[in-house]
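Notebook p. 47: complex prediction with calcium ion.
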Amino acid sequence: MMFRVLARFFTGAAVLLFAIAAGASAGTPTKETIDNAVPVGSTYTGLYAKSSSDKLTPTGSIGCSELEPNNTIALSDPITLGVPCTGTAAATDASTYVIHYASAPDGKVHDIFRFTIGASETINVTMTFTTASADLDIVLFSQVTGTAVDKIAGSSGFGTTETFTATLAAGTYYIGVSAYSGSSPYTVLATAESAAPATPSNLTATGTSTSQIHLSWQDNSNNETEFRVEEKNLSGTFVDIGAAVANATGINVNGYSPGQTSTFRIRARAGTSYSPYSNEATGTSLGTIGPCVATRPCDSTST
Ligand SMILES: [Ca+2]
Ligand SMILES: [Ca+2]
Ligand SMILES: [Ca+2]
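Predicted complex, structure tokens below:
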């Protein structure tokens, strides 16, 4: 079967086109969006049905944007573990289900994402939103009874980050986003705890005293156990010198002589899985260069 619809439009400025072809199981709505830069002038868009011989196979991680409406299980958007999904929720949006909270009035489920796991797994879910005056919450459920979701886990705090962890059997689960009040864009990230954490980035090393170098980085993972810190030794080999706790974005390394230079890298650990290494960063303790110390590297000008 093949049909084609052509639409012509003119644009005086660049617009965005971008294609996400999300596979969907039988009986589930399939949605596609196009978002790509086009030049000034005439542009054509085409819609056509493809047969099952479609050979497009996405590779790597692609971002995820909520496709409205998604306020029922049937309309839920797929979320890939480890890939952030963005959306917008407002307390005035249409909703189909409610969340029975134990110690608060019912919340409404405005947006729903779904994922499937093939084996038991511990899942970390984090939602961050940008409008501090709003109050967004998240809930995890696997089914609905009447109009209420059967809540497995969730978070209903008052800050702009909501996070929870749930250990789940194999199956399909739903993450519901509720705008308890106000309206805000948000990002949801669901990560399998057994998965390698995302790589920390933007590592810097700065001397903060004659005996101390401060390391700073960006935490990009929501499932890390800790960050392992490595330092290059006198023979040029990186050696693990210790760890910073989960969600840390900095640590002090002590024991230097004045003016001593050293190079570092870090990686996130989740259980037995490690992220790739961060960039390498080099820093120098304050003060004038002193003698080399056996356990610490010196730069070439040290004596
Ligand atoms: Ca929404
Ligand atoms: Ca909240
Ligand atoms: Ca983290």
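Notes: The mean pLDDT is 81. Residues 219, 221-222, 224, 246-247 surround calcium ion (ligand 3) (CB under 6 Å).
Next step: compare against the earlier run before touching the bench.
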